[in-house]
Write a structure and sequence with these properties.
The protein is an alpha/beta fold and 144 residues long. The chain contains four helices and six strands, in the order αβββαβααββ. The chain is globular and about 40 Å long. It starts with 7 loop residues before the first helix and ends in a 7-residue tail after the last strand.
């Protein structure tokens, strides 16, 4: 099992504070015998629509030496997980969780914006101090 990101518990608490139920930590994704582990799996029932939403959340701190190197790794991991979910017909939708500071900094650069758009990366932006979800940036609308 991979080590937890430093913001793992922060994002977990932010999801719980937003009404999500954590299904699993280190959620196993498997494809043809190969396994990878996503940080969090969560679900939420929306009473108005009487629908259940299930998400996988990969948490990234972006505290490495190079933002670009961290971005390469995060996008690659996101695509791997997204494609496994798609190929296996999973009901989960994937999100990359980043702090508000990272989103307002490096994620506003043209390169990051291009990669997010071309690879259709769903983002969960959280406030690390208050453990609150600030924004859902999604290719598919999610109720909050």
């Amino acid at each position: 099992m991979p080590a937890k990101d430093i913001f793992h518990d922060t994002v977990k608490n932010a999801l719980i504070n937003d009404g999500w139920t954590i299904i699993d930590e280190n959620y196993t994704l498997e494809y043809e015998g190969d396994k990878v582990y996503a940080d969090l799996a969560a679900e939420k029932i929306f009473a108005v629509e009487k629908q259940e939403q299930k998400i996988i959340v990969e948490v990234k701190s972006f505290l490495g030496r190079s933002f670009i190197s961290d971005l390469e790794s995060a996008i690659g991991q996101y695509i791997l997980y997204r494609d496994i979910l798609c190929e296996t017909g999973s009901p989960f939708q994937i999100y990359l969780a980043v702090s508000k500071g990272v989103y307002e900094g490096g994620f506003q650069k043209k390169l990051a914006q291009m990669l997010l758009k071309r690879n259709q990366v769903n983002l969960l932006v959280f406030d690390a101090n208050t453990e609150v979800i600030e924004q859902w940036i999604s290719q598919v609308t999610i109720a909050t």
